[in-house]
Structures are given as structure tokens and as C-alpha cells.
Specification:
The chain is about 50% helix and about 10% strand. The chain has about 200 residues and is mainly alpha-helical. It folds into two domains: about 60 residues, no CATH class; about 100 residues, no CATH class. The strands form two sheets. The chain has a three-stranded mixed β-sheet. It has a two-stranded antiparallel ribbon with strand order 3-4.
Length: about 200
Amino acid sequence: MFVWIVILILWIALIALILHDATKQSSDGSAVVLAAKKINLWIRRKARQSRKTSRHRNAKKASAKPPMEVEEPAVSAVATSPEVVPQEEPAPEKQPLGRPKKRKWWRNDSRTEITVPELEAAISEAVKKTAPCEDFVGVIVGRKTPKSNLDPNWEIQGAKFGKADRKLAAETLANVVQRMQKELVLVEERSVTRQRAAGWASL
């Protein structure tokens, strides 16, 4: 049994060495180094989660007290009145923008995938929320080829300012685009083509 374990370890070391030599010229580093970083990041994340869980459990134990006897309040005229006090409806939860991108173990990309119409609507809404830009009409988003994997694959190709202050709206738009390019990435054209084909097939 010990001999088989030693042989297995030697095979794993040989495969790791071959992978390292084959991918060490990559701009992101070799596959072995990236895998080691991913494993290290996963271990740290699990350690942080376990620490948070233990702190939360300790806080619950500290705040736990024996129940106190509460006297029942006297029934007042307000409580016996037939009128029902209307309760405020809870505000609907905000839907997350886009869809999580499929993560690959060799690429550290946490951006969210989104379609062009969704992105144009999100940018327009974010600009309109700024005080002097309520009359902003919208933007036109186009694809571009990123220089690296983490660069944005979209850009603003046009903007309709409407009656909004052009200078203030342009500054606000630049800030919104700079923030969203770090968070959102356009869906790959192959995925869009597949979705359209599936839609036509279902008709």
C-alpha cells in the first residue's frame, strides 16, 4: 500500500511539473502557480467564514438571557375599536443586475454577465438618479475587443442627453461607466446566438 502511495505522489509531481513548463510563458503565470493561489484563497476564505461563525455563535450565547415575565397590558378603547390600522407593505427586494459569470479556475474574474439592452437601461437609470440629470435620455453601448482577460469588453458609442445639463451629465456618465466596467461584462456573442436559436426552436 505504501509503495502505491509513493508512486501516486510521484505521478502527481510529474504532471504538475509538465503543466508548469507548458504554461509558464503565459501572461497570468503558470497553471500550477494559479492553482496554488486559488487553493490558498479558498483556505483563507473558509478560515474567515469559520471565524465569523464562531463570533456569531459566541455573541448569541452572550445575548441569551432567561425570559422575563411580562404583565399583560390592560385592554384600552383603542385596542377594542373595530378600525384596523393599515400596515405598510414591505418594499420589494431589488433584483440583482445581470447573471453571475461562469468562473474558471485559471481566471480570477468576478464580474457579472449582462446583455446590451440590460446594460444600456442600467447605465441610463444610474445617470438619471443624479440630481441635475433627470432629463437624461439614454446611451448606446457597443462591444470592443479587450486587450486582456480582465479588461472591459464594451464601451459607450453614443449618448442622448435630452434636456439635461450636458457637462454634468457627461461627468456623471463617465463615473457610472468607470464603475460598471469593473462590475459588468457583456455576454459572449456565442451565448447570445445559442439563446436566440433556442428561442426560435421553441416557437
